């Protein structure tokens, strides 16, 4: 077997065979049961992580609450300086962390490095933001009065993340939350606990070097039961949760029941519309990367191609041809395009989805199947498949987290394609391939795509951190990352100051004593 340098990466990230999964800064403990993390790449045991018990959680919350009292008093640009140093540490550790992401989650090494780059980018963004947490000033209707709004730190932010972006989603939240003056408690996915411990080790060092309160960054580990400790906890004003729609519905209700805020980043069912004016070569690259990248396990993965009937056969042939070039195997080997699914449960869901698509009347264009034999011992490698289908199929309406691409045909004007693309419960990412200005603008108009992300002449996956990221409808409505997404991590206050000796009331109301 080729040595991909995993041992060295684990050592550089301070990971052991058995790791404490609960941490308040650099104080690591954990008395719950142990989760074993096996790599989907080769099935090997990467390490074990001890989970968080309700008693451990109390200690974490105490530390976080204490840290918040201090952290909220640190001027925002100085909080930004801490985040800048965190970004520097990530630059130093980009390769080992990218490798761990690839090995524990199964995405390609290039995508693992890309994920760490996103963490670095959001740190840079947050550093700039730390001097720009602006509120507005307004003109008061009353003489001698001044009115303005300001943003204050919110408190302890709970972060629940999915397995498919095991490090970046945490950074998207924390980098902003920290400059906003919040402290964070993170529960990573129970499928990628080692990534969580690695990130916590990195930030703990930064906090220690700066003599900052430990609880600014806390880690808890375990399954949904550990997540529920946060969703039901009144001391957490904001829960940011990334994962399936099923999870989002439960989390949203638990948080709403105590009138907390939730930021939800849930599943997608993303489509590319291919119009008669599309550049076919660009379409093929965008669609294939979108459908098979991260083995179809991105929330923005391309699941549906909605192709005009006049070019349907041409696009179909070009895409099926391109699939013949795909090399499936160890994602750390840069010659491969497609790595494994996260686990054998995911493989079963992929197989069931293909079966259901056929039962509903779909036609297989590129055969799927589970790979066996040398290099595929983990049982997690599957062939990317293409199915000719109808938008109305139950299975097409769902998000299957695997490399299955559905081809759908439309006829007539682009409005018909937009109707199909919007005709699902999810609303995350969407794209149109066209050189027609009219079609592109129609797609982006108020009667166009109903998704949080709408692209022209690029695919559905691969967003930049500068824009707000998130989706509508059952994708949950939350926005993370760039633009003004920071506002959800702060509480807004409107202030009116009277510098006269009179007390005039608003709306001209008279009240004389
Ligand atoms: P999942 O819903 O199974 O788990 C996500 C996280 O939620 C895990 O940490 C899990 O332990 C936790 N969780 C589950 N039930 C919970 C509950 N009742 N209370 C508290 N926490 C709970 O999702 P997954 O399989 O890890 O990830 C895949 C899903 O995530 C896909 O649907 C994908 O589209 C979505 N996703 C969305 C985005 C986005 O930004 N919109 C990004 C990445 C992934």
Indicate the low-confidence ranges by residue numbers: none
Strand line-up across the major sheet: 3-2-10-9-8-11-12
Associated small molecules: nicotinamide-adenine-dinucleotide
Number of helices: 15
The structure class reads alpha/beta
Instruction: Write down the Rg.
Output: 24 Å
EC number: 1.2.1.3
Subunit structure: Homotetramer.
GO molecular function: aldehyde dehydrogenase (NAD+) activity
Keywords: NAD, Oxidoreductase
Secondary structure: elements and pairs:
Blueprint: H1 6-12, E1 18-19, E2 22-24, E3 27-29, E4 34-38, E5 45-50, H2 54-71, H3 76-92, H4 94-105, H5 109-129, E6 137-138, E7 145-153, E8 156-160, H6 168-179, E9 183-187, H7 193-209, E10 217-219, H8 224-231, E11 238-242, H9 245-257, E12 261-265, E13 270-274, H10 280-292, E14 302-308, H11 312-324, H12 344-359, E15 363-366, E16 385-388, H13 394-397, E17 404-410, H14 414-422, E18 426-427, E19 429-433, H15 437-444, E20 453-456, E21 468-469, E22 472-473, E23 480-481, E24 490-498
Parallel strand pairs: 1-5, 8-9, 8-11, 9-10, 11-12, 13-14, 13-19, 14-17, 16-17, 19-20
Antiparallel strand pairs: 2-3, 2-10, 4-5, 6-7, 7-24, 15-16, 18-22, 21-23
Helix pairs in contact: 1-4, 3-5, 3-7, 4-5, 4-7, 5-6, 10-11
Keywords: NAD, Oxidoreductase
GO molecular function: aldehyde dehydrogenase (NAD+) activity
InterPro entries: Ald_DH/histidinol_DH, Ald_DH_C, Ald_DH_CS_GLU, Ald_DH_N, Aldehyde_DH_dom, ALDH7A1-like
Q: Can you put this structure into words, describing what you see?
A:
Residues 32-494 form the Aldehyde dehydrogenase domain. Pfam families: Aldedh (PF00171). Homotetramer. It is a single chain. The chain is of the alpha/beta class and 513 residues long. Helices cover 37% and strands 21% of the residues. It contains 15 helices and 24 strands. The strands form six sheets. A seven-stranded mixed beta sheet has the order 3-2-10-9-8-11-12, sandwiched between helices. A seven-stranded mixed beta sheet has the order 15-16-17-14-13-19-20, with helices on both faces. A three-stranded mixed beta sheet has the order 1-5-4, covered by helices on one side. Strand 16 (385-388), helix 13 and strand 17 (404-410) form a beta-alpha-beta unit. It is globular. It starts with 5 loop residues before the first helix and ends in a 15-residue tail after the last strand. The mean pLDDT is 97. Residues 160-165, 187, 189-190, 223-224, 227-228, 231, 242-244, 247, 250-251, 265-268, 299, 399, 401, 428, 471, 475 line the site of nicotinamide-adenine-dinucleotide.
